[in-house]
Amino acid sequence: MTANTHTRLLQVCRTCGGGAPVDVHFCPSCTKILTISRQGDYFSFLGLPRKLTLDPALIEQQFRALSRQFHPDYYYNATPQERRASLERSSYLNDAYRTLKQPASRVAYLLDVENVLKASDHDVVKKAPVALLEEVFALNEELDEVRDLRAGGLPDDQWRARLAAAAAPIEAKRAEHEAQVRTLSERWDALEAGDAAGRSAVLSALRERVLEQNYINNLLATIAREASGAGGPQL
């Protein structure tokens, strides 16, 4: 057995003890369904390249094909171990499909599996990115004015129009970031696997765009809550 073969045998069949690559769903030796391996990722699980510009029809096709293979109904009379493996793979498949079918969650997941996101990044909505400080300051001032006007009896259509106007530049910022993420996604897909410097640069740029995008979405959600009358804390 070659060294390369050893590196590819990343999961062990609990039925026969044979080894299998991490992206294989059924044991090559005994054909039994394999228990889920935590060493893989959603891309390999669905048989997709680790790319960001993926054909939605292909994602759907892979999902449907695997759904038929893993469905628990096919393992009704199987061993408890096989039934458990079927349930595990079906659940993981659903998670993979939900994540990869949407471009935004696909990018965030790539950053996660490439170990680019930090634990502190999940708290980004609590602190405005430097690039958005001007927009946040202006929005907070406008929200304060709208609240005062509403409390003073300004007709609904007028203060709602103020909120819509306040949302316009934020929406424009979101569109700008989405375009930047698409461009960076295309750059990522065009990179050679061995281009470590290029990959690092694109991933770093994607991380910044994603964190700012998350905060932009938070700003727009705040405006929506204000428009509904729910209000919210200052950003």
What is the gist of this entry?
The protein has helices spanning 3-8, 42-45, 56-70, 80-100, 103-113, 133-151, 156-190, 196-228; strands at residues 11-12, 19-20.
Description of the structure:
This protein starts with a helix and ends in a 7-residue tail after the last helix. The chain has helices at residues 3-8, 42-45, 56-70, 80-100, 103-113, 133-151, 156-190, 196-228, and strands spanning 11-12, 19-20. By secondary structure, it is an all-alpha fold. The radius of gyration is 24 Å and the shape is elongated. Helices cover 61% and strands 2% of the residues. The protein has a two-stranded antiparallel sheet with strand order 1-2. It has two domains: 3-101, Helix Hairpins (Orthogonal Bundle); 124-228. The chain contains eight helices and two strands.
What key phrases describe this protein's structure?
235 residues, mainly alpha, Helix Hairpins, 2 domains, two-stranded antiparallel ribbon, elongated, disordered N terminus
